[in-house]
Amino acid sequence: MDGIDHLADERNKAQFDVDAMKIVWAGSRHAFEVSDRISKLVAADPGFRKDNRPMLGRNELFKNTLRKAAYAWKRIIELHLSEEEAAKLRFYVDEPAYTDLHWGMFVPAIKGQGTEEQQQKWLPLAYKMQIIGCYGQTELGHGSNVQGLETTATFDPQTDEFVIHSPTLTSSKWWPGGLGKVSTHGVIYARLITDGRDHGVHGFIVQLRSLEDHSPLPGITVGDIGMKFGNGAYNTMDNGVLRFDHVRIPRDQMLMRVSQVTREGKYMQSDVPRQLVYGTMVYVRQTIVADASCALSRAVCIATRYSAVRRQFGSQDGGPESQVIDYKTQQNRLFPLLASAYAFRFVGEWLKWLYTDVTQRLQTNDFSTLPEAHACTAGLKSVTTTATADGIEECRKLCGGHGYLCTSGLPELFAVYVPACTYEGDNIVLLLQVARFLMKTVSQLGSGKKPVGTTSYMGQIEHLMQCRSNVQRAEDWLKPSAILEAFESRAARMSVACAQNLTKFTNPEEGFAELSADLVEAAVAHCQLIIVSKFIEKLLQDIPGKGVREQLEALCNIYALFLLHKHQGDFLSTGCITAKQASLANDQLRSLYSQVRPNAIALVDAFNYTDHFLGSILGCYDGNVYPKLYEAAWKDPLNDSVVPEGYHEYIRPLLKQNLRTARL
Ligand SMILES: CCCCCCCCCCCCCCCCCCCCCCC/C=C/C(=O)SCCNC(=O)CCNC(=O)[C@H](O)C(C)(C)COP(=O)(O)OP(=O)(O)OC[C@H]1O[C@@H](n2cnc3c(N)ncnc32)[C@H](O)[C@@H]1OP(=O)(O)O
Ligand SMILES: Cc1cc2nc3c(=O)[nH]c(=O)nc-3n(C[C@H](O)[C@H](O)[C@H](O)COP(=O)(O)OP(=O)(O)OC[C@H]3O[C@@H](n4cnc5c(N)ncnc54)[C@H](O)[C@@H]3O)c2cc1C
User: Fold this and answer.
1) How far from 175 is each of 46, 72, 142, 179, 395, CA to CA, in Å?
2) Which family does it belong to (predicted)?
3) Any residues with CB less than 8 A from the CB of 109 and at least 6 apart, and which?
4) Which ligand is closest in space to the CA of residue 281?
5) 191 within 8 A of 248, measured Cβ to Cβ
């Protein structure tokens, strides 16, 4: 606006090579270059404008999303974008749309659960978007309990077809994104019934709408489920409701990689585990962890830049007031979130590796790492999305009153992000899955079966159950070994305590239900250990760039010590550390905040977000916040007229009446 960089002084304070950090954040030089190029392309294209979103009504908003999706697809084809570039384009366009479910769930479901033949038939159509698909699992009556779904797929051997039916109101499909108004097809989950026998939930490809005029096919009732939380936000998505009235589909539209139904109606299972039916959820949960780091870093970037611009109190001798970022309370709320964004980035990278590894193993019929992949994706999805949703809201509060304005970008970011705590598995339900996995691991400890992967720390259970931290000075908390031992012994002791308590119940399921709150806490401790240990592992790698490693070490320590402080009840009650050591951790944390403070702006610059993507006046790169806020206010439709619509109808009569009363 005035061409001045109001954050230049802050940028000059940085003690590390920001460009090198940008590459660490992106994952590689190649990833950085793709991301940088595509983000600028999107920002420069008026077709991807998004600042008017909170003002639009639902119909306008939705049509606008349809336009953007079609335009994005056109640009992807015109520019011959690769899959990686197209995914980046979607990311920077920053608008939830039916395409997410098509590419993110419908296609992966066919890839993961379809036979070779089915993939050959359906994927080319889906890749060209000649059909558009959704993921139709959740129903009005059941989401978490997938085994409780009620939609039926009954095999009719006379016609070699399945009859898809919604027998009750609660069996109506409810929530699938893209279903409400767009999808022509869906992978629909239904109970498979052959010869009167119920074989549980399986996936079926079902055509929902005509490819000629988009009208629902006979027997199908479909629509949108209505407005969701927040203006704009997730209302760009057509989450849908769907009912089937004896809809017939050919037998070969059951996804048959895991189990098959023969022409005669015989049900057969392959030697792949039936849990592969849940495979698409494992894939998406893994992507959600990486996405958590993006959403949190975006909020943190806004709050950090604004905290450096905003001044309140502390003027001395008529000089400038203090920047709010210099208040220790602000740092204590903001810097752990900055550290968390980096921590989630690295654990997301690792989880992607784990997922790729398990997928390659599955292709060679090695299913041994599937339980761990399920536990890791479920647990990390839960812990990172909870922290991110809470973190975005904290960033809004860190921006004071201006954070509540839509132009801060934070209300919409929160409203779009918060359902991540629920979709792809309610976060508590997912932690209970982790807890089951942990209880199984503990119960096998005496059997000679060596725990592997993320539970390998349990292999030293005798040591972890009795060790005492040897931290004596605050700086001792900077040793990765001190941090790891504290987190490992906390996690191990909480799991073992739950396992011991479970033995007091004659019925293990009753015990599990009764102790579920403790089990969830043990699962959180285990997941936090994974995140801390993956951050520490990252630091063992070669990290080029002046001062980059030092900054990452500081952030890693902030992440770990902040968690230690927040959960000190766990660490103290399990006897892993003493009250004195907890207090030393806090001293060290304060000193780390001072170390990060001069680098804070550069650390958020390293995310390399454009002003378009941030969508926030408070977070704009040049920090020129006040003129922009002032100007934006005048653009609000309410300011289109000086005297508001409704004055003559509702204000004037009131004022006149008051006048008469006053004269009396
Ligand atoms: C405008 C812009 C336009 C741009 C255009 C650009 C176009 C092109 C761009 C291309 C770019 C691509 C972009 C892609 C974007 C991707 C983004 C994706 C976005 C996603 C949005 C999300 C939307 C939301 C979707 C959903 O929510 S789908 C529904 C999800 N539902 C759930 O998660 C339900 C949760 N419940 C469960 O998972 C299970 O029921 C349960 C696990 C809780 C319990 O199940 P069950 O009762 O059967 O199980 P048990 O507890 O008895 O366990 C049995 C054993 O099975 C194991 N188990 C359980 N689950 C799994 C699993 N998933 N995997 C492996 N094993 C599993 C248990 O551990 C038990 O094992 P054991 O017997 O050994 O103990
Ligand atoms: C924005 C959005 C998009 C979605 N998109 C899709 C989609 O594309 N396709 C699709 O199929 N679905 C979709 N869903 C549905 C989503 O997957 C489910 O809402 C989610 O899995 C949670 O299930 P639920 O709604 O049944 O919650 P419930 O299970 O009813 O949860 C209600 C409460 O009960 C608690 N609870 C439930 N079970 C237990 C238990 N065993 N122990 C302790 N506590 C428990 C939960 O913690 C929660 O507090 C979407 C949902 C949202 C919000």
Assistant:
1) 31, 25, 11, 8, 29
2) Belongs to the acyl-CoA oxidase family.
3) 135, 187, 203, 255, 280
4) 1
5) no
Question: Which residues participate in catalysis according to the annotation?
Answer: 424
Looking at CATH, the fold of the domain delimited by 445-605 is given as: Butyryl-CoA Dehydrogenase, subunit A; domain 3 (1.20.140)
Cα maximum dimension of the chain: 94
State in Å: Cα 423 to ligand 2 middle: 6
Q: Is 137 in the pocket of ligand 1 (CB under 6 A)?
A: yes
Name the one residue in this structure whose structure tokens are 């309610």.
Answer: 426
Q: Are strands 152-156 and 185-194 parallel, antiparallel or unpaired?
A: parallel
pTM over 0.90: yes
Each residue's pLDDT tens digit, 614-655: 999 999 999 999 999 999 999 999 999 999 999 999 999 999
Positions of CATH 1.20.140.10 in the chain: 445-605
Could you identify the residue written with the tokens 């939380």? 229
pLDDT in tens, 237-269: 999 999 999 999 999 999 999 999 999 999 999
Task: Kindly give, in sequence order, each residue whose CB lies less than 8 Å from that of residue 315, ignoring residues fewer than 6 positions away.
Answer: 321, 322
Does ligand 1 lie within 6 Å of residue 66's CB atom? no
Contact 178, 102 (CB under 8 A): yes
Residue 659 has pLDDT above 60, yes or no: no
How do residues 165-176 score in pLDDT, each as one tens digit?
Answer: 999 999 999 999
- The predicted model gives 367-390 an average pLDDT of 97
Pocket of ligand 2, beta carbon within 6 A = 101, 135-138, 142-144, 175-177, 234, 239, 419, 422-423, 425-426, 428-429, 432
CA distance 433 to 430: 5
- Classify 106-270 by CATH class: mainly beta
Per-residue tokens: 286: 């893994």
> DSSP secondary-structure letter at 459?
G
CA–CA gap between residue 307 and residue 338 (Å, rounded): 13
Angstrom CA distances, 62 to 65, 180, 236, 593, stand at 5, 11, 5, 44
N-term to C-term CA, the chain: 54
Q: Are 511 and 443 in contact (CB under 8 A)?
A: no
Give the start-end residues of each E strand in 104-231: 133-136, 152-156, 161-165, 173-174, 185-194, 197-207, 220-224
Is 262 annotated as ligand-binding?
no
| Distance separating alpha carbons of residues 398 and 300, to the nearest angstrom | 10
DSSP 88-129: HHHHHHT---HHHHIIIIIHHHHHHHS-HHHHHHHHHHHHTT
- Would you say 182 and 102 are in contact if contact means Cβ atoms under 8 Å apart? no
Burial pattern 59-93, b for ≥16 Cβ within 10 A else e, equals eebbebbeebbeebeebbeeeebeeebbebbbebb
* Strands annotated E in 208-316: 220-224, 240-244, 247-250, 259-261, 267-269
Q: Is 146 exposed, middle or buried (0-12, 13-18, 19+ CB in 10 A)?
A: middle
Of 229, 234, 351, 346, whose CA–CA distance to 297 is shortest? 346
Q: What is the Cβ-side half-sphere exposure of residue 350, based on CA atoms within 13 angstroms?
A: 22
Residue type, 292: A
Tokens 């970011």 appear where? 413
Q: Where in the chain is the domain with CATH 2.40.110.10?
A: 106-270
